[in-house]
Amino acid sequence: MLTVESLSAGYGPVRALTDVSLTAPEGEITAVLGANGAGKTTLLRTISGLIRPTSGTVTLAGRDLSRQSTEDLPALGLAHVPEGRGVLAELTVEENLRLGALGGGRRATGEELARVYKLFPVLRERGNGLAHVLSGGERQMLVIGRALLSRPKVLLLDEPSLGLAPKIVTQIFDLLRGLVRDDGLTVVLVEQNARSALSIADSGVVLNLGRVVVREAAAILAEDDGLRHAYLGF
Fold first, then answer.
1. How many CB atoms within 10 Å of residue 114?
2. Distances from the Cα of 119 to the Cαs of 47, 76, 145, 165, 171, in angstroms?
3. Stretch (H or E) spanning 185
């Protein structure tokens, strides 16, 4: 579904990614792992067009994204949930959700909103309230729900567990696994919590200093003691 080939990118003279290649198969979760500064967030930002690569290509279902503007990507099936759980605090929860569909060039239907509320019942309870009153976990649910309303084929998630209670993390990861299983969603998951990410992922890619050092099935990565100690911290 999503293919990255020989991707290099950086910030001015500083190179953050060097010749990175990976494939995120349709209907699977691909975990991107590594220490702080490994290039994980830069990779997602480059895939979604927020950073222009110096070389390499990104294709979505065979379509080259390198010539597309960032604003066009939701309509092509790519949704990016950045780190930080950004919401528009002055808008209501439902208004924030509706922005997801607008990013894809259309309006959310009542059926689509109902489905998001079914996935995240707490958002239904908060629907008419302003987003700034939400807890961190509720904000994470809101930004994921907003992304889902763009009808993505591929969902890029950057550190969704950051700062959340373990119970909320489990709930969100269970939801992701269900979306992949039931809807065929393709997920690229960047996570500092490698143990949790590998528990739901199908495959993993490990970055170190902007380069891919390992590509392997998630179950094999989780059992490789040497790799875990060298790169994943558990």
1. 11
2. 27, 24, 8, 19, 10
3. none
174 vs 68, 130, 167, 190, 211, CA distance in Å?
A: 32, 27, 11, 16, 30
Domain count, the chain: 2
- 219 shares a domain with 117: no
How far apart are alpha carbons 203 and 169 in whole angstroms? 19
User: In terms of DSSP bridges, do strands 55-60 and 63-64 run parallel, antiparallel, or are they unpaired?
Assistant: antiparallel
Which range of residues forms the domain containing residue 99? Answer: 88-151
Residue 174 · residue 98 · CB < 8 Å: no
Specify burial of residue 30 (Cβ count, 10 A radius: 0-12, 13-18, 19+): buried
pLDDT, averaged per 10 consecutive residues of the chain (234 residues), comes to 94 93 96 92 94 94 85 90 84 92 82 92 88 89 93 94 87 91 93 90 95 94 82 72
Q: Are the beta carbons of 17 and 7 closer than 8 angstroms?
A: yes
Per the domain annotation, does 187 fall within a domain?
Answer: yes
Structure tokens at 45: 């930002």
> Strands (DSSP E) along 118-178, which ranges?
154-158
Which amino acid would we find at residue 168? I
Cβ-based neighbour number of residue 163 at 10 Å: 12
Instruction: Please give the structure tokens belonging to residue 56.
Output: 């390499």
Buried/exposed 152-162: b ≥16 CB within 10 Å, e otherwise: bbbbbbbbbbe
